[in-house]
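It is worth pausing here to work through a concrete case rather than discussing structure prediction in the abstract. The textbook approach is simple: state the sequence, then state the predicted structure, then interpret. We follow exactly that order.
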Amino acid sequence: MSQREGKTISERYKLAVSKYYSIIVNGEILARKTSEAYQDQLLDLIKEFKLVRNITEELSLFSDNEILDEINTAYIPFLNLDYYLGNLYAECLKNPKNEKEQDAVEFKEANLSIAKRYLVRFLVRLDSLEKILDKDQSLKVQSFNETYNPTDEELVTSKDPARKRAEKIANYKREKELSEKFGVLDEYYEKYKNRGVGEELEFDNFDDETIKAVYIDQLKFFSLKSFNLLESIVFEMQVLKNRPTQRPIQDSTPDDRAEDKKVDDYGFTTKLESVVRPDQMKVSDLLSKQGKILRPFTITSDKQALKQKVFGTGQVLPSMSVEEYLDYELAHGKMAQPEEAAKGDSSDDSDDELEKRRWDDWKDEHPKGMGNTKSNIG
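Step two, the predicted structure:
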């Protein structure tokens, strides 16, 4: 006979919460959260909490127009059902409708959406009861444009880093204070599963007012945790929406290599490959949408060229002197080298010949003794 069979709704709830504390809070199962054993435990708990929730709805334990003071103390713990379900779905990676099918990410986004709905319902319910949510929390819930379907912007706290940090610190201090107040309730749920037959625990002997105060402190604590978890869910869903598809769609374009193989087993084909200039290539020319490499390519870096542009002078400077340039041109045959005059050259264009000609011309124009005025001319 199963431990749950023959139990009242209250006993089934306490057993489920006890198991929740063992797995989620205390990490009793020493396994990764993506492991099959851990995920199976989550699914089992989800089914149990949903069963208890369905029974409470059929029994109509709560009314939409009643406040906290009007609720029976024994019914208050059932208000946490949506919170527990929201936390369980946030951890779940499997498809709750088909336990045999599992993918680490396949159903994560869908489960996060379900977790978001449960947590929002939990907060809206607490806001209607009064005396649980503080003023800022209540205003935030009431600001939802759609009560049970708020947008991501409505769930995220202030975008101001300083204010966001202050809110985180204040919430942490409040969570610590509240957790100390209902610590006795945590111990009660942890011990409830292993208690003896007919054994009463310390919490069972408290008076009604004390028990109700502890339950209310737990609701306040869970409200803080719910706001934090909703913000984490929003960020995680944004990441999952931008992730690449896990199951690539088969490309309908036939593989050219397969066609070539049909023509010739040796791989010969008459099909020409289209030539695309490197500067005209796009990413789609190199990789398909599924990440398949279409043509070989090399990843290069223009870091050095960019560095020269940033730290350079902004203009093109000469890289060699005029003498070096002339030597370079002469070495590569781009300029004709001057021919040295051969020794004993009798060319009329030499300097000596020209000087002699000018001297002969001068003597023809000036006879000997022409400038001697005191002596005879002749």
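Step three, interpretation. Residues 161 and 167 are 10 Å apart (CA to CA). The two ends are 164 Å apart (CA to CA).
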